[in-house]
Amino acid sequence: MALLETTHRDFANVSKIIGRHGKGQQELVPILQEVQAEYRYLPEEILSHISTAMGIPPATVYGVATFYAQFSLEPKGKYVIRVCDGTACHVRHSMPIYEAIRKKTGLRGKRITSADGLFTVETVACVGACGLAPVITINDEVYAQMTPEAAEMIIDALMNREVNPVETH
Amino acid sequence: MKRISSREELLDYARQCEARMKAVGRRVLICVGTGCLANGADEVLREFERLGADVAAITKGGCDGFCEAGPLVRIVPDNVLYVKVKASDVPAIVERTLKQGEAIEELLYHHPVTNEAYHGEAEIPFYSSQTRVTLCNCGIIDPDELDQYIARDGYKALARAVCDLTPDDVVEEILDSGLRGRGGGGFPTGRKWMFARTAPGDVKYVVCNGDEGDPGAFMDRAVMEGDPHRVLEGLAIAGRAIGASHGYIYVRAEYPMAVGRLKRAVEQCRRVGLLGERILGTNFSFDVTIKEGAGAFVCGEETALLASIEGKRGMPKPRPPFPAQEGLFGKPTVINNVETLATVPSIILRGPAWFQSIGVEGSPGTKTFAITGQVANTGLIEIPTGKTLREVVYDIGGGIRGGGEFKAAQIGGPSGSCLPTELLDIKLDYDSLTRAGAMMGSGGLVIMDSGTCMVEVARFFMSFAQKESCGKCVPCREGTHRMLEILEKIVGGTATMDDLHILETLASVVKESSLCGLGRTAPNPVMATMKYFMDEYVAHIVEKRCPAGVCKALKRYEISESKCRGCTRCAQACPVGAISGEVRQVHVIDVAKCTRCGACVATCKFKAIAAV
Ligand SMILES: Cc1cc2nc3c(=O)[nH]c(=O)nc-3n(C[C@H](O)[C@H](O)[C@H](O)COP(=O)(O)O)c2cc1C
Ligand code: FES
What we know:
The complex is a heterodimer.
Chain A lengths: L1 H20 L6 H12 L4 H11 L3 H10 L11 E6 L2 H5 L3 H10 L14 E6 L11 E3 L2 E3 L4 H16 L6
Helix pairs in contact in A: 1-2, 1-3, 3-4, 6-7
Chain B lengths: L6 H17 L3 E5 L2 H5 L2 H11 L5 E5 L11 E4 L3 E3 L7 H10 L9 E2 L6 E2 L6 H4 L17 H6 L4 H8 L3 H11 L11 H10 L6 E6 L8 H8 L1 H15 L3 E6 L4 H17 L14 E6 L9 H8 L23 E5 H13 L1 H5 L2 E2 L2 E2 L1 E8 L5 E6 L4 H8 L9 E6 L5 E4 L9 H6 L8 E6 L4 H15 L5 H19 L4 H17 L3 H5 L2 H9 L1 H8 L15 E3 L9 H5 L5 E2 L7 E2 L9 H5 L5 E3 L1
Parallel strand pairs in B: 1-2, 7-8, 7-10, 8-9, 13-17
Antiparallel strand pairs in B: 1-3, 3-4, 5-6, 11-12, 13-14, 15-16, 15-17, 18-21, 19-20
């Protein structure tokens, strides 16, 4: 029952977003962006709902959702860590930072989200802070002039915050 | 604030704004560009607001380009620039500089070699070699304040374009100025406008390309964040020129702050009537929509960008028809880069002859570059076209960081080329670069030193192009994939000379037969590195050696006999047991077992282990 209720509420939210934007296809990308901001990913049943509500074929909605790197069809972690691998960061050795973060968060093989759902680790091609390379972002906040050690310390701090939420401010 | 409904009202209001700015007396400008924010500029700002608000006006400014030295604090009119300011420095600045008028030596910029202290930016070589037209307000005004833009001649060019000039005059002036598109192609902006102006149809659009796809460049970001009104003004003038009443600014997803500042600027303009119906009491009506991209490099290509605004997958279309004939929603559309449009107001205000007098003939004006990589002063710069690469790297950039040796500059990102030491004296303008087989690109300039492997750089760009290929045409989709495979074999030490020949053939096939600019330019970094650094390719393939010591698979660690003290730490640290040796005896690495993880290098206290 509880599950059904949430689903209903979810659709109501999505309908509100669509209502705000209107149903023209040029609104599809902004609508998907808002939906993703709310759920941290694009749940499949919501994509079908959007298709019906906007009168756009499911293949088109799905096609757009899978084309752009910003959209994710899988749930993301609470902390989305992006390691910049743009040219400026790359030549200042961003990859060892990426590897250190993956190791620290226990990611192996093709996994990008940690088993506890806390961390998603991905690369991004330039966040525009190239003057301070190498950089990483955590939920859109930029951390400059990184080293593998500094990145590990930041993740330690986040892990601690999760264990002892009261201690943080 | 009330509506501005004629040119006289604008000029009058500008005088008031100017007077108010002057009356403020002392002003503290804290840079809140992305770089400075990441280094704690927001805390510095809060601390100034808490402690200094009664002795000076505290304002935030956009990125002024000297990111390396941030957070930056500028005090005007005293002409003092403080670098790497921390929140804990603020009490002293308020007490000593703001109250007693004395400069704090430790916070000034010091020359990296001579250690001489510089007071203000006019003396610092990073700034003094620049000519700022497009960036003239960046770092100087608060991007969230329309009044500050208006106080510095803001919207006067638009007033001239709608009150004094006909649309044809506007096109004419841009044609005469010789302005060329700053987005990479260098196409004459006036010609593009003329095509759209003369294209039949009532509904036309102007689009600003703020996708800034080159990974390693942030010129457009700095302008959109630091001086958003300049972009809006340029776009509105373009609208006036071609007869469009709606414009779009397409900003890439990774730039949330730019989106916020532009949206705010649009709101401010609508409120005072600088956007909307009957601007300045004329028949010209114009409004702007800010569109956020969703993370796809190919959307920087104009036809893909238009598809993306329409809500489709951002895939390019064959041209012709060009957007100027059949663009957004099938209507004639002008699409220009951020920097191109941000240059337009100055041209309309100061005239084509003034613009022609800057830089070199054939590509006049200034160009912004993001200089990054292994250079001492990274950041954003604006120089007259025709300055040499050497001037940029050594005068403005302060040379190679750590005193290393220049090896190459990568220019133009994934579609670009590289300029080796032999080309240090090349002039940075469209025609000189094209003659040398390179390209201007959008302004990304990544400086590389002897610690950079050029084959790995080629692999890096190919991997980028391959990931970003939209998949529509076969040469690009499959070609980039195969090229990447070969490059991976080369850096992995398993390639043969035959592979190298295949790589060369593939490069020309992909270049000749791809549908859009992405595929047609993707082989450029490979071709350029093959042209100038063939010896590095051959070393990887034949000698199984990476001359720069970068490629992991080809790295070999060696313990120096003279430095090793036999402390055994490395042997304990090695996860695969590849190091052996007795206590107090020189240790050795078993190359066959070594996985090149580098753990031993990190633990050695005597710096006895190095990659060769
Ligand atoms: C793959 C690809 C990516 C591009 N990315 C950008 C970009 O990020 N920004 C930009 O202004 N132009 C980009 N362009 C060039 C645009 O297609 C277009 O030429 C430009 O926006 C025109 O503006 P301009 O004449 O003012 O330079 C790209 C082109 C290609 C082929
Ligand atoms: S390359 Fe990393 S921020 Fe630009």
